[in-house]
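Quick note —
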Amino acid sequence: MKQIHRQEKEQFKKLFKQEKVDRFNDRLRVLEVFLQIERHVTISELADTLQKSNSPYDIAFIRETLKLLCRFGFARQRRFDDGHVRYEHRHIGHHHDHMVCTRCGEIIEFHDEELEEMQIRIAARQGFHVLQHKMELYGICSECSKINDQPTPLITAKPGDRLKIVDFSGGAEARMRLLSMGLRIGDTIEIITNQGRGQMVIALDCKRYVLGKGLARKLVAERVSETAQKEPVRLSRLQEGEAGIIVQVGGNGAIRRRILEMGITKGSEVVVEKYAPLKDPMELVVRGYHVSLRVEEADLILVNKDSCRGRDLA
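Predicted structure written out below.
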């Protein structure tokens, strides 16, 4: 990296002298300090670092110098989801993408040659020639993951979080209200919006639910890993047109025998054709046959569901 930085400074001297840029030595000092910062930096952060390095410059001069660095290809301006403008090094011939932690704001650079080649192949199949691209992955960094592994009130969750409801501290009336909405302990949800002061919107099985602040405080949830997000769901959670592969049939005695006799066995594909007007029973297609199943029976069956996209039953 030091070799690259030396090359950058040599090219800087050549180009800026050639273009007769004013305050050459001051701008070179800004570049030197900028290259020492191995992260994405805002103008104010760069100004603070220059100040600590006994090179105090006003914000306007630093902003103008960064603009020149971008113009001549020594820096690149980035604006991530937090809205702040940051600057990063731009080394010729070096490409990288970004992972952004939505909790602490850390920006992690990464490069994957296999991923780069895959993007080119995908574009080529569409007859598209890639000139440039950027990839930004938003999630939770390893350090924040350690903190987020502990169950917390739902009200503290951030948009984009995937959580599993593990407890409910409300009374009987609030619990009934929760059940009437279709939310239960054990459900995996996604946070759509949360402004922290009023209502929040969550998603469960591709449906949106609006929760008030009081109810969200009573719900306790824990973060769900990528692997856990693919855990089986109850058949009763599938929507009309959705399909799944049966991985477990629960129950016992006559109820279990009845389910198995319908052809609802492990490994079979099941499609939800429709629900009755009062949501019970549900009409299914299994092994090419149309069968009717009570929702309480469907609760005993676990299926693997890949996405929220429905199927064409025709």
